[in-house]
Each structure stands twice: as C-alpha cells, then as structure tokens.
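Reminder to self: tokens first, then the designed residues, so the page reads top to bottom the way the pipeline ran.
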C-alpha cells in the first residue's frame, strides 16, 4: 500500500488521538469535549482558521494552500452511540451507557491525520475545509451544518468527500459506487383507537387488534406488490404494542416501523401507500387511526465523476478498490452534503470483525494511516500545485 510516509510516521500519534476520543464518547449535538480536543490538535498543526460551535458543537477548519485553486470539503463525524461497550480494551469507554460503536472516533482521527500532513506540506492550491460534525447518529448534524449553518456557501466548498470504516470489508479495501450508496430513512408510528372492555364480551367493544393486524399484513404488500423486484425498498414493522391483561381488550394499540429507499420516487410511493393502507383499514374496521410519518435522512447519492475520481485516488493508496458497490440500506446524514455539492462517500475496510452498532465493535487503528493518506492524496491530486 502506498501510505504517505509522513503519515505512517505519526500513526501511533493518530492511534492515541483515536483512543482518547474512544474513552470519552459523547452523544448527539453534545460533542463539546471531542470538539475541543479536535480544535486543540488543529491549532497545534498550524491550521489557518478554526470555527467552533458550528451546529452546536461542530468544528469547521480551513487550510490554505499555495495560491488560488479549488475548495474541497472533507467530513468526519464525532458522535457515539447510547450503548454499553463490551470490547474489554484498555481504552474502553469511561462513560457508562455510551460507546463509539460506529467508528466515528476513527473517522475523526483519520481527518486529523490528513490535517496534520496537509498543514505541514501545503503541497496544493486553493483551500481544504475540514468538517467535523456532531449528531450523525440521531438528528442529522449534517443537515444542520448544511441547512442551518450554510457551511457550503459560507466556506465556498465546491466538492465534498467522506470515508466510513467498514468491518465487512477486507483490510485496506475501498468500496464505493457512482450512484445511490446508502438509503433514505423514514419512520412511522400508527395508533389504532377503538373501545376497550372485558375480553369475554368482545361484542360490547370495538377491538383495535384486528384493524392493527390487517394494517401490519397489508404493509407487507407494499414491496412485494408495488415495487419492481429489480428496485430496492424496505418496509419493516418493528413494534406492535397493546393491552395490559389477559382478560382486557385495550382501547388503543400502537405500531411502528421504518422505511428505507434509494430514490425519491420510491420514497414518495412508499409513504403514499402507507397512508392509504392506514386510512383504508381504519375505515374498513370502523376505527380511529392516527399516522405520524417522520421523513429523516435522504438517500446518499454519489456523483459519478467525483466517485470515479475518488476511486482512482484510492487505487493509488491501496490496490484494493471496488467501484461498483451495490447500494446498502443503512442511512447516512452525509446525504445532505451530497445534495448540496458534488462529492462521494466511500467505505474503507478495516478487516472482518464485529459489525458497527455492536457492543464488541472497535475501530482498527492500523486503518487510520490509509484513510488519512486517501484524504491527503485526494487534495494533492485535485488541487495539484
């Protein structure tokens, strides 16, 4: 692998940064300690401009190159997950109920490594904008940075790129594509209200369960009977709650689930069908129904030219590159940045191991110099001095 020699030289330092962040996980928009650590490192590197408090606790920093040239954004996420760690590592989370189970500690360390190198060498034109964002896991810190903080316009970003560690990929293997790479995510909650009563006298009640079961069954037809088998859509019922005793028919039940789609058209079609099914079944069973439909992250859609450029850069760093990765049905709030600017999202294999969002997951520090070298080479290639 053609890891940048200078970056390889401070690999242990990168591991130290990553493990410090891993020990001190923060959630959502409350990534203030992590942001302060990031800003301190950037000051040490001599980064030109550092802006804190973006999207509550995000950091946006600028490194100026030699003369005029492109402006490229590089993004890393900083937040952790609300779960207990079971790695048994010496640097395991010090905070009960929180852990870095998705590799965001590694993403931050990789971007810091690239920043250290780029600030030292300045072997590029234009500007690099480093985007350290909070709240990828829950409320979409990427959306806040783009829509509320206007970072793309504010910092003049023309293209934007991001990496995500991949415990399903071989070590050092980059995977991407030139289209939809991750799905949109929408969530729904359905309440069915009838009239409760004694279970021995159902004729004196309006039982919400038959209506709820009919809704749940009908939702399963959205994919199987409304979508081509060559397209990707997921509608999953994940909750069904109701009742408190064996001899009581409840007056209300609640159901919930999630929808994953890869195109705006499929996304809109799924919502339309769910609304029609809920309304129709409520009418058929004489029930009062309530649907809350929460549209969350849009699909992450790579731009073809930028994805192929990024794949070529990755080949220069690692001989292992897959550039026709089938889309995945997980979601990412980097999608908001890709909606605003051309760019690409890539996975970096860290070796096969426990899945992200698993209590035994841990970022592989040996992958950090590869990711940092990718970011550095991407800038030196696109901003060739």
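Designed residues (385 positions):
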């Amino acid at each position: 692998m053609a890891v940048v020699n200078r970056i390889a030289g401070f690999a242990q330092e990168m591991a130290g940064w990553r493990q410090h962040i891993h020990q001190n996980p923060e959630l959502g928009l409350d990534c203030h300690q992590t942001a302060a650590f990031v800003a301190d490192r950037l000051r040490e590197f001599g980064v030109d401009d550092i802006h804190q408090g973006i999207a509550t606790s995000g950091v946006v920093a600028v490194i100026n190159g030699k003369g005029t040239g492109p402006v490229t954004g590089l993004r890393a996420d900083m937040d952790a997950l609300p779960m207990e760690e079971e790695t048994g590592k010496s640097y395991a989370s010090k905070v009960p109920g929180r852990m870095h189970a998705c590799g965001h500690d590694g993403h931050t360390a990789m971007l810091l490594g690239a920043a250290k190198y780029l600030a030292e060498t300045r072997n590029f034109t234009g500007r690099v904008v480093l985007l350290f964002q909070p709240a990828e896991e829950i409320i979409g810190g990427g959306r806040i940075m783009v829509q509320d903080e206007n970072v793309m316009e504010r910092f003049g970003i023309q293209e934007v790129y991001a990496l995500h560690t991949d415990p399903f990929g071989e070590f050092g293997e980059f995977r991407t594509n030139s289209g939809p790479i991750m799905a949109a995510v929408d969530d729904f909650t359905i309440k069915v209200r009838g009239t409760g009563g004694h279970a021995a006298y159902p004729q004196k009640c309006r039982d919400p369960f038959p209506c709820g079961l009919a809704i749940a069954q009908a939702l399963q037809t959205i994919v199987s009977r409304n979508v081509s088998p060559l397209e990707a859509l997921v509608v999953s019922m994940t909750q069904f709650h109701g009742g408190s005793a064996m001899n009581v028919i409840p007056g209300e039940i609640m159901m919930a689930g999630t929808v994953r789609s890869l195109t705006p058209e499929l996304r809109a079609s799924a919502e339309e069908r769910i609304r029609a099914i809920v309304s129709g079944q409520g009418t058929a069973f004489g029930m009062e129904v309530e649907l809350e439909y929460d549209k969350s992250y849009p699909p992450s859609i790579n731009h073809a030219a930028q994805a192929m450029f990024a794949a070529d850069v990755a080949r220069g760093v690692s001989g292992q590159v897959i550039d026709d990765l089938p889309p995945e049905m997980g979601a990412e709030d980097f999608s908001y940045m890709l909606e605003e600017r051309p760019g690409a999202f890539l996975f970096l294999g860290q070796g096969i191991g426990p899945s992200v969002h698993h209590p035994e997951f841990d970022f592989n520090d040996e992958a950090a110099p590869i990711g940092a070298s990718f970011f550095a080479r991407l800038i030196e290639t696109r901003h060739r001095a």
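The mean pLDDT is 97.
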